[in-house]
């Protein structure tokens, strides 16, 4: 790709034309990656720097002046400078002796084993619910999924409160027996 075409792509990128930016990336990324890799000597760092540089090019394309330098020269300067800055950063591995670093990344999401257990429990509950009478299944579902009280269920379904209570109790006892097998 010649300089004139690259200048046009940069001008379109300055206007936030994503198609032009994609084309610019496709035509220049391998050369710019080689520059970063030559400076950094590590592929993971070179990839990281290249990504940062293209984000910078996206935002700074409006600053490019063709009268000052060729487009590839301008982008190479960005990559070279970012690579030098990268090398100046401390890149040492943090030890996590007390577990504080690991704890800082912890979240409430279930791990793979917990998800498997939960899936097995969910399957068992669904299987056991299928064994209930339809009225018991309906009442337990309303109580559990919609959080309705016994009296609210009685009003909603227009059945006596005692019937609701005894049907739910029998259904829960049947679920308990089914799940304990």
Could you characterize the architecture of this molecule?
The protein has 181 residues and is mainly α. The protein has two domains: 3-88, Rna Polymerase Sigma Factor, Chain: A (Orthogonal Bundle), CATH 1.10.1740; 112-179, Orthogonal Bundle (Arc Repressor Mutant, subunit A). The chain is built from nine helices and no strands. It has helices at residues 3-14, 18-40, 43-60, 71-88, 100-105, 112-130, 134-145, 150-157, 161-179. It is elongated, with a radius of gyration of 32 Å. The relative contact order is 0.07.
Could you give the topology of this structure?
Elements: H1 3-14, H2 18-40, H3 43-60, H4 71-88, H5 100-105, H6 112-130, H7 134-145, H8 150-157, H9 161-179
Summarize the structure.
The protein has two domains: 3-88, RNA polymerase sigma factor, region 2, helix turn helix motif (Rna Polymerase Sigma Factor, Chain: A, Orthogonal Bundle), CATH 1.10.1740.10; 112-179, Arc Repressor Mutant, subunit A (Orthogonal Bundle), CATH 1.10.10.10. Helices cover 75% and strands 0% of the residues.
């Amino acid at each position: 790709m010649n300089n004139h075409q690259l200048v046009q792509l940069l001008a379109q990128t300055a206007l936030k034309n994503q198609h032009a930016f994609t084309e610019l990336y496709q035509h220049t990324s391998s050369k710019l990656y080689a520059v970063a890799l030559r400076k950094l000597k590590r592929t993971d760092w070179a990839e990281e720097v290249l990504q940062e540089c293209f984000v910078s090019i996206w935002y700074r394309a409006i600053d490019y002046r063709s009268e000052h330098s060729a487009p590839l020269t301008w982008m190479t300067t960005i990559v070279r400078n970012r690579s030098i800055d990268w090398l100046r950063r401390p890149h040492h591995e943090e030890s996590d002796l007390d577990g504080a670093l690991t704890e800082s990344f912890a979240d409430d999401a279930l791990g793979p084993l917990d998800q498997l257990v939960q899936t097995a429990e969910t399957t068992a509950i669904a299987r056991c619910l299928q064994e209930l009478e339809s009225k018991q299944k309906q009442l337990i579902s309303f109580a559990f999924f919609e959080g309705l009280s016994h009296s609210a269920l009685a009003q909603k379904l227009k059945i006596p409160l005692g019937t609701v209570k005894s049907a739910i109790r029998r259904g829960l006892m049947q679920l308990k027996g089914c799940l304990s097998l």
